[in-house]
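Q: Could you predict the 3D structure of YbaK/aminoacyl-tRNA synthetase-associated domain-containing protein?
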Amino acid sequence: MRAPHEAFTDVRPATECLDLLVPPVAGAVRGWSGPVPVDEVMYVDTDPAVADTATLVETHGPWLLESSANCVIVAGKRGGVVTLAACVVPSATRVDVNGVARRELDARKASFAARETAIGATGMEFGGITPLGLPADWPLLVDAAVADIPYVLLGSGSRRGKLIVPGKALPGLPGARVLEGLGG
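A: Sure. Here are the predicted C-alpha coordinates for YbaK/aminoacyl-tRNA synthetase-associated domain-containing protein:
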Protein backbone atom coordinates (compact mmCIF):
# COMPACT_ATOMS: atom_id res chain seq x y z
CA MET A 1 0.00 0.00 0.00
CA ARG A 2 1.39 3.38 -1.00
CA ALA A 3 1.35 6.13 1.60
CA PRO A 4 -0.93 9.08 0.81
CA HIS A 5 2.06 11.39 1.32
CA GLU A 6 3.22 10.37 -2.16
CA ALA A 7 0.22 12.00 -3.88
CA PHE A 8 0.94 15.53 -2.68
CA THR A 9 3.85 17.93 -3.10
CA ASP A 10 3.33 19.92 0.11
CA VAL A 11 2.94 17.70 3.18
CA ARG A 12 3.69 19.38 6.51
CA PRO A 13 3.20 18.55 10.18
CA ALA A 14 -0.25 19.75 11.25
CA THR A 15 1.43 21.62 14.12
CA GLU A 16 2.89 23.98 11.49
CA CYS A 17 -0.53 24.61 9.93
CA LEU A 18 -2.75 25.46 12.91
CA ASP A 19 -3.88 28.68 11.21
CA LEU A 20 -5.26 26.60 8.31
CA LEU A 21 -7.32 24.33 10.58
CA VAL A 22 -10.80 25.03 11.95
CA PRO A 23 -10.73 25.83 15.69
CA PRO A 24 -11.80 22.40 17.05
CA VAL A 25 -9.21 20.58 14.89
CA ALA A 26 -6.46 23.08 15.73
CA GLY A 27 -7.32 22.60 19.41
CA ALA A 28 -7.07 18.81 19.06
CA VAL A 29 -3.66 19.13 17.44
CA ARG A 30 -2.46 21.60 20.11
CA GLY A 31 -3.68 19.33 22.93
CA TRP A 32 -2.65 16.07 21.24
CA SER A 33 -2.16 13.16 23.62
CA GLY A 34 -2.62 10.31 21.17
CA PRO A 35 -0.62 7.09 21.00
CA VAL A 36 1.72 8.46 18.30
CA PRO A 37 3.76 11.68 18.39
CA VAL A 38 1.85 14.72 17.16
CA ASP A 39 4.48 15.35 14.49
CA GLU A 40 3.17 12.21 12.70
CA VAL A 41 -0.15 14.02 12.11
CA MET A 42 0.35 15.71 8.74
CA TYR A 43 -1.54 18.38 6.81
CA VAL A 44 -1.86 18.72 3.03
CA ASP A 45 -3.33 21.84 1.49
CA THR A 46 -5.78 20.76 -1.22
CA ASP A 47 -8.20 22.52 -3.50
CA PRO A 48 -11.72 22.56 -1.95
CA ALA A 49 -13.09 21.63 -5.38
CA VAL A 50 -11.47 18.20 -5.05
CA ALA A 51 -12.44 17.56 -1.41
CA ASP A 52 -14.91 14.78 -2.20
CA THR A 53 -13.31 11.35 -2.30
CA ALA A 54 -14.21 10.50 -5.89
CA THR A 55 -12.81 13.78 -7.23
CA LEU A 56 -9.72 13.61 -5.02
CA VAL A 57 -8.94 10.08 -6.20
CA GLU A 58 -9.55 11.05 -9.83
CA THR A 59 -7.23 14.06 -9.44
CA HIS A 60 -4.40 12.54 -7.38
CA GLY A 61 -4.50 8.84 -8.24
CA PRO A 62 -6.84 5.86 -7.85
CA TRP A 63 -4.49 4.16 -5.40
CA LEU A 64 -5.41 6.86 -2.82
CA LEU A 65 -8.77 5.16 -2.31
CA GLU A 66 -7.15 2.32 -0.36
CA SER A 67 -5.77 4.74 2.25
CA SER A 68 -8.71 7.17 2.44
CA ALA A 69 -11.41 7.21 5.08
CA ASN A 70 -14.58 9.21 5.58
CA CYS A 71 -15.88 10.53 8.88
CA VAL A 72 -19.66 10.89 8.97
CA ILE A 73 -21.99 11.95 11.75
CA VAL A 74 -24.79 9.61 12.73
CA ALA A 75 -27.80 10.29 14.97
CA GLY A 76 -29.05 7.39 17.08
CA LYS A 77 -32.49 7.74 18.69
CA ARG A 78 -34.08 5.89 21.59
CA GLY A 79 -37.02 7.10 23.66
CA GLY A 80 -36.78 10.70 22.46
CA VAL A 81 -33.05 10.90 23.25
CA VAL A 82 -30.72 11.59 20.33
CA THR A 83 -27.08 10.52 20.51
CA LEU A 84 -24.68 11.94 17.97
CA ALA A 85 -21.66 9.87 17.03
CA ALA A 86 -18.91 9.97 14.43
CA CYS A 87 -18.23 6.94 12.25
CA VAL A 88 -14.93 6.51 10.42
CA VAL A 89 -15.00 4.00 7.57
CA PRO A 90 -12.91 3.26 4.49
CA SER A 91 -13.91 5.63 1.69
CA ALA A 92 -14.84 2.75 -0.58
CA THR A 93 -17.56 1.67 1.88
CA ARG A 94 -20.66 3.14 3.51
CA VAL A 95 -21.44 3.24 7.21
CA ASP A 96 -23.69 0.36 8.28
CA VAL A 97 -26.02 2.83 10.00
CA ASN A 98 -28.95 0.50 10.65
CA GLY A 99 -26.82 -2.46 11.72
CA VAL A 100 -23.45 -2.01 13.42
CA ALA A 101 -23.78 1.71 14.26
CA ARG A 102 -27.36 1.45 15.56
CA ARG A 103 -26.50 -1.52 17.79
CA GLU A 104 -23.32 0.12 19.12
CA LEU A 105 -25.30 3.26 20.01
CA ASP A 106 -28.06 1.14 21.60
CA ALA A 107 -30.55 3.05 19.47
CA ARG A 108 -33.95 2.00 18.14
CA LYS A 109 -33.37 4.05 15.01
CA ALA A 110 -30.23 5.52 13.47
CA SER A 111 -29.67 7.75 10.48
CA PHE A 112 -27.11 10.09 9.02
CA ALA A 113 -27.31 13.39 10.89
CA ALA A 114 -28.76 16.32 8.96
CA ARG A 115 -26.12 18.53 7.34
CA GLU A 116 -26.98 21.49 9.61
CA THR A 117 -26.73 19.28 12.70
CA ALA A 118 -23.36 17.85 11.64
CA ILE A 119 -21.94 21.31 10.91
CA GLY A 120 -23.33 22.94 14.04
CA ALA A 121 -22.35 20.17 16.43
CA THR A 122 -18.80 19.71 15.11
CA GLY A 123 -17.78 23.25 14.14
CA MET A 124 -16.48 21.75 10.90
CA GLU A 125 -17.45 22.08 7.24
CA PHE A 126 -19.62 19.45 5.63
CA GLY A 127 -17.41 17.33 3.39
CA GLY A 128 -14.38 17.89 5.60
CA ILE A 129 -15.47 16.46 8.96
CA THR A 130 -12.66 14.63 10.72
CA PRO A 131 -12.39 12.57 13.91
CA LEU A 132 -9.85 15.01 15.39
CA GLY A 133 -11.54 17.77 17.38
CA LEU A 134 -14.96 16.20 17.84
CA PRO A 135 -16.81 16.74 21.13
CA ALA A 136 -15.01 14.57 23.71
CA ASP A 137 -18.23 13.00 25.00
CA TRP A 138 -19.26 11.63 21.60
CA PRO A 139 -18.81 8.01 20.64
CA LEU A 140 -16.22 7.73 17.87
CA LEU A 141 -16.85 4.51 15.99
CA VAL A 142 -13.84 3.43 13.92
CA ASP A 143 -13.97 0.57 11.44
CA ALA A 144 -11.18 -1.90 12.26
CA ALA A 145 -9.99 -1.75 8.65
CA VAL A 146 -9.25 1.99 9.04
CA ALA A 147 -7.26 1.46 12.24
CA ASP A 148 -5.13 -1.04 10.28
CA ILE A 149 -4.20 1.41 7.51
CA PRO A 150 -0.62 2.62 8.06
CA TYR A 151 -1.47 6.23 7.08
CA VAL A 152 -5.08 7.35 6.67
CA LEU A 153 -6.12 10.30 4.52
CA LEU A 154 -8.97 12.14 6.30
CA GLY A 155 -10.76 15.45 6.18
CA SER A 156 -9.17 18.36 8.02
CA GLY A 157 -12.34 19.96 9.35
CA SER A 158 -12.76 22.07 6.22
CA ARG A 159 -13.05 21.30 2.54
CA ARG A 160 -9.65 22.88 2.00
CA GLY A 161 -6.95 20.50 3.16
CA LYS A 162 -6.61 16.93 4.35
CA LEU A 163 -4.97 15.26 7.30
CA ILE A 164 -2.75 12.19 7.09
CA VAL A 165 -2.88 10.29 10.37
CA PRO A 166 -1.39 6.93 11.33
CA GLY A 167 -4.33 4.50 11.51
CA LYS A 168 -3.08 3.20 14.85
CA ALA A 169 -3.66 6.69 16.32
CA LEU A 170 -7.43 6.59 15.76
CA PRO A 171 -8.27 4.08 18.54
CA GLY A 172 -6.53 6.46 20.99
CA LEU A 173 -8.79 9.43 20.22
CA PRO A 174 -11.43 10.44 22.80
CA GLY A 175 -14.48 8.15 22.80
CA ALA A 176 -13.01 5.78 20.18
CA ARG A 177 -14.34 2.25 19.78
CA VAL A 178 -12.92 0.00 17.06
CA LEU A 179 -15.58 -2.16 15.37
CA GLU A 180 -15.51 -4.87 12.76
CA GLY A 181 -17.85 -4.33 9.81
CA LEU A 182 -18.84 -0.71 10.50
CA GLY A 183 -18.13 0.07 6.85
CA GLY A 184 -20.43 -2.20 4.89
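Q: Anything worth pointing out?
A: Residues 54 and 62 are 9 Å apart (CA to CA).
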